[in-house]
Design goal:
Blueprint: E1 6-8, E2 17-19, E3 28-30, E4 36-37, E5 40-42, H1 44-57
Antiparallel strand pairs: 1-5, 2-3, 3-4
Bound molecules: zinc ion.
Zinc ion is lined by residues 9, 11-12, 14, 30, 32-33, 35.
Length: 70
Protein backbone atom coordinates (compact mmCIF):
# COMPACT_ATOMS: atom_id res chain seq x y z
CA UNK A 1 0.00 0.00 0.00
CA UNK A 2 1.24 3.41 -0.93
CA UNK A 3 1.01 5.98 1.82
CA UNK A 4 0.04 9.31 0.38
CA UNK A 5 1.65 12.27 2.02
CA UNK A 6 0.50 15.80 1.61
CA UNK A 7 1.24 19.21 3.01
CA UNK A 8 -0.73 20.39 6.00
CA UNK A 9 -0.59 23.12 8.58
CA UNK A 10 1.48 21.79 11.51
CA UNK A 11 -0.74 23.61 13.95
CA UNK A 12 -4.29 22.58 13.02
CA UNK A 13 -3.67 19.92 10.37
CA UNK A 14 -5.57 21.79 7.69
CA UNK A 15 -4.90 21.33 4.00
CA UNK A 16 -6.28 24.79 3.45
CA UNK A 17 -2.84 26.34 3.20
CA UNK A 18 -1.35 28.82 0.82
CA UNK A 19 2.15 29.49 -0.32
CA UNK A 20 2.29 33.21 0.25
CA UNK A 21 5.75 34.15 -0.94
CA UNK A 22 6.91 32.39 -4.13
CA UNK A 23 10.51 33.41 -3.47
CA UNK A 24 10.44 31.88 -0.03
CA UNK A 25 9.39 28.23 0.06
CA UNK A 26 9.27 28.19 3.84
CA UNK A 27 6.54 30.78 4.18
CA UNK A 28 3.08 29.27 4.13
CA UNK A 29 -0.13 30.64 5.50
CA UNK A 30 -3.00 28.62 6.93
CA UNK A 31 -6.54 29.74 6.14
CA UNK A 32 -8.05 27.82 9.04
CA UNK A 33 -5.88 29.16 11.83
CA UNK A 34 -3.42 32.00 12.13
CA UNK A 35 -0.35 29.91 11.41
CA UNK A 36 2.36 31.11 9.08
CA UNK A 37 5.66 29.39 8.45
CA UNK A 38 6.81 25.98 7.37
CA UNK A 39 4.28 23.29 6.68
CA UNK A 40 4.72 19.58 7.17
CA UNK A 41 4.06 16.54 5.05
CA UNK A 42 1.92 13.92 6.67
CA UNK A 43 -0.28 10.97 5.84
CA UNK A 44 -4.00 10.84 6.53
CA UNK A 45 -3.64 9.23 9.96
CA UNK A 46 -1.16 11.79 11.19
CA UNK A 47 -3.33 14.59 9.88
CA UNK A 48 -6.28 13.23 11.82
CA UNK A 49 -4.24 13.08 15.01
CA UNK A 50 -3.09 16.67 14.58
CA UNK A 51 -6.63 17.87 13.89
CA UNK A 52 -8.08 15.98 16.84
CA UNK A 53 -5.46 17.23 19.27
CA UNK A 54 -5.79 20.81 18.05
CA UNK A 55 -9.59 20.76 18.27
CA UNK A 56 -9.86 19.05 21.63
CA UNK A 57 -6.90 20.40 23.57
CA UNK A 58 -5.43 23.20 21.47
CA UNK A 59 -2.11 21.45 21.55
CA UNK A 60 0.32 21.22 18.69
CA UNK A 61 1.66 17.70 18.44
CA UNK A 62 3.57 17.99 15.21
CA UNK A 63 7.00 19.44 14.90
CA UNK A 64 8.43 21.18 11.89
CA UNK A 65 11.59 19.44 10.85
CA UNK A 66 13.77 22.00 9.18
CA UNK A 67 16.71 19.80 8.36
CA UNK A 68 15.60 16.69 6.61
CA UNK A 69 17.67 13.57 6.81
CA UNK A 70 18.12 12.05 3.44
ZN1 LIG B 1 -3.72 25.88 10.56
Amino acid sequence: MIIMKFKVCPQCGSENIEWIIPQNWSQWSCNDCSYTGLVIEVDKDTQKEIQKEWKETGRIISSVDEDEDK
